[in-house]
Design brief:
single chain, about 250 residues, alpha/beta, Rossmann fold, six-stranded mixed beta sheet, four-stranded antiparallel beta sheet, globular
Length: about 250
Amino acid sequence: MSERKPVFAAEDLHVWVGEKEVVKGVSLKIYPGEVHAIMGPNGSGKTTLVQAIMGHPAYSVEGKIYLGGEDITALEPDEKARKGMFLAFQYPVAVPGVTVASFLRAAVSARRGQEVPVKEFRQELLARMAQLDMDPAFAGRYLNDGFSGGEKKRLEILQLLMLEPTFAMLDETDSGLDIDALKVVAAGINAAATPERGLLLVTHYQRLLNYVQPQVVHVFIGGKLVRSGGPELALALEEKGYDWLEQSLGGGA
């Protein structure tokens, strides 16, 4: 029987912003079909971690990043995306003049390595938009231009469903969502959690995890993964706060 291989792995990852080390030796493996969550207080380095994994040019990276067993550490962000890595941003950028449909068709074609016929693309796009309770007219709007917070987050999940990555990172996708929008976005994330794909959710709060249940929860404090456990760890953090864990760590727990 062949050994089960992770869909994503990071080995001893260090990330610097200028002279400051923000991520301090993170190692992580995520297997196909797994959903992992990283929780941590503001300023702990969670966003820096996922942006550095994706290849943000502002960061210096030391260590190794693997996708499906392939070393992709040195690849540019667009190359990582073509190979099947995806990042949903906490604060998506507006691109006036570029429609949602044209952007997505170009991105899907790049991901699949060939031009997607217009009719086929439109059918798939409308089906995915319906899944996320999005008005079809949304496809003709300019990318994130004048979008509400909920619309931006729905678009990030629409991209996830359309691009069908091997491994996806979602950076605080629940931020700023009301309960109805949160349920729709969570349903989209659950639809994306296929047996072939790995997902990594970055969040402050338990509330997203009420709707998308991870197999593994990691706590990220001071640039390090300080503890890992099951969903019960997220519940404990929600009840007791991060101070509780920081104090227990300081006490040698």
